[in-house]
Amino acid sequence: MASLLPSIPVINMDDLKPGTESWISTSQKVTHALEEYGCFMAVYESVSKELRNDVLDSLKSLFNLPKEAKIKNTSDKPFHGYMGPIPIRPLYESMGIDHPTSLDDVQNFSNLMWPSGNDHFSNHLSSAPKADETNLGAEIHTDKSFITILGQINPVNGLQVEIKDGKWVDVEILPSSFVVLATDPFMAWSNGRVKPPCHRVIMDGEEDRHSTVLFSYKKGIIETPEELVDEEHRSKFKPFDHYKFLEFFSKDEIYLDEKAIKLFCGA
């Protein structure tokens, strides 16, 4: 059972301009939050309630499509495209969209799902359990992207994060906010300075949980900056290709191993 307190840090991201005192102060807060928790909640009021409602409607339309339509969204990259429920995640279903900030790519995805036309889109959903279903929406894991930004679209919580002392924290995502999570590759990039938080999704109601997730992946080689390596902080990870790590991690025997990044590129 998770504890309601302490929670993860909450940082206001509105009206920030590079180089200003507020920018520098916020940067310091972000650094501290990542080093201490591996995550934080970013408040960004510019995302309106109307936009969230529009996204929620789009999510429902997308995941209500028949399976034969959803599986058209294929990808040769691990963990991209459509991912349906599997035995270890029976309540989880996701729809990945490559380059979601590109209008052309989003339109191409929309045309694939709705040949007759539909401009709405989204990219992630977890379903709530019914009376005879398990309450685990997503198993305990750390992320394999470079950085993860999670947005809760409807008021159905369930995200839990493990903090340093081993306690699980229920994360009640505030309106107009996003949860930013460090990942395994980010840990390697930071030379172990930032640890990715273990997290899971627990469902305990009859209502579906809808969320959007931005997974950032780095093309090419990830390596630790020189300024993070010295005599007291020896290099802990070798440079590595992000997508080759995903291929390595997607192997059945590695899939749930939290030490996968160290097995892949540990120095």
Overall description:
This protein is an alpha+beta fold. The protein is built from seven helices and 14 strands. The strands form three sheets. The protein has an eight-stranded mixed β-sheet with strand order 1-2-10-7-12-5-4-3. A four-stranded antiparallel β-sheet has the order 6-11-8-9, with no helix packed on it. β8 (159-162) and β9 form a beta hairpin. The longest helix has 16 residues, at 21-36. Residues 1-6 and 120-134 have low confidence and may be disordered.
What kind of assembly state do the chains in view correspond to? single chain
What structural class do the secondary elements suggest? alpha+beta
Q: What letter string, H or E per element, gives the SSE order? A: EHEHHEEHEEEEEEHEEEEHH
* Spans of at least 5 consecutive residues with low confidence: 1-6, 120-134
Number of strands: 14
Which strands sit side by side, in order, in the main sheet? 1-2-10-7-12-5-4-3
* Beta-strand residue fraction: 15-25%
Number of helices: 7
Radius of gyration: 19 Å
- Look at the structure and give the mean pLDDT: 78
Largest sheet: 8 strands, mixed
What's the shape?
A: globular
Give a summary of the structure in a few sentences:
The chain has 267 residues and is of the alpha+beta class.
What is the topology?
Layout: E1 10-12, H1 21-36, E2 39-43, H2 49-63, H3 67-70, E3 82-83, E4 92-95, H4 103-113, E5 124-126, E6 136-141, E7 147-152, E8 159-162, E9 168-170, E10 177-182, H5 184-189, E11 199-202, E12 209-216, E13 221-222, E14 240-241, H6 242-249, H7 260-265
Parallel strand pairs: 1-2
Antiparallel strand pairs: 2-10, 3-4, 4-5, 5-12, 6-11, 7-10, 7-12, 8-9, 8-11, 13-14
